[in-house]
């Protein structure tokens, strides 16, 4: 494997140090290697978050499972809408760019994914289901104390059961946490986001 994690002196992907690959716990090494195989590169967020060691590995297990296209109670595209809007509302440039691409692929329309990542409110052709999920994500991400029974009923009106609603809460909450890590670390967006 190539030099996966550069030394702090040779990188500016984070405002804190980026550990060497061989310093990492085994589980974290496995996750980073898996991401490299899957994507063809190692995302800067994984390199920057690696400073957390075993905590980062546990967080990654949780985060990556929430957006696994082959699992989950909600369809993958719904989970991407939630993650994308959460990242946009929190103002996380790294996550917004990352999820704009992923959402675009899930929707089959990269331009639409990018527009949702800029501001879902301006996307007239966004379907009702995704608009309701986007509103829910925006509210929960920034004003969790304001989420009320009407918001839950709007999700139920889409046909979501309680377990699916709770999964939506997991996605928004986990990505709100990831946004805070990324914003604090000032993780540099990957070059691949701009191709």
TrEMBL record:
GO terms for MF: peroxidase activity
Keyword annotations of the record: Oxidoreductase, Peroxidase
Top-rank taxon, per record: Bacteria
Entry-linked SUPFAM superfamilies: AhpD-like
Record-linked NCBIfam families: peroxid_rel (TIGR01926)
Name of the protein described by the UniProt record: Peroxidase
């Amino acid at each position: 494997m190539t030099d996966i994690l550069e030394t702090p002196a040779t990188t500016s992907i984070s405002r804190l140090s980026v550990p060497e690959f061989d310093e990492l716990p085994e589980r974290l090494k496995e996750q980073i290697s898996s991401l490299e195989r899957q994507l063809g590169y190692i995302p800067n967020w994984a390199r920057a978050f690696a400073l957390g060691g075993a905590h980062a590995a546990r967080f990654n297990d949780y985060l990556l499972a929430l957006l696994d296209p082959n699992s989950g109670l909600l369809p993958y595209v719904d989970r991407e809408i939630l993650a994308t809007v959460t990242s946009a509302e929190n103002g996380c440039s790294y996550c917004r760019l990352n999820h704009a691409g992923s959402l675009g692929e899930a929707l089959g329309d990269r331009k639409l994914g990018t527009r949702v990542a800029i501001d879902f409110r301006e996307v007239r052709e966004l379907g009702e289901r995704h608009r309701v999920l986007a509103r829910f994500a925006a509210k929960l991400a920034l004003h969790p104390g304001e989420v009320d029974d009407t918001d839950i009923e709007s999700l139920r009106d889409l046909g979501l059961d309680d377990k699916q609603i709770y999964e939506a809460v997991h996605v928004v909450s986990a990505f709100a946490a990831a946004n805070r890590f990324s914003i604090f670390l000032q993780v540099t967006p990957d070059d691949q986001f701009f191709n």
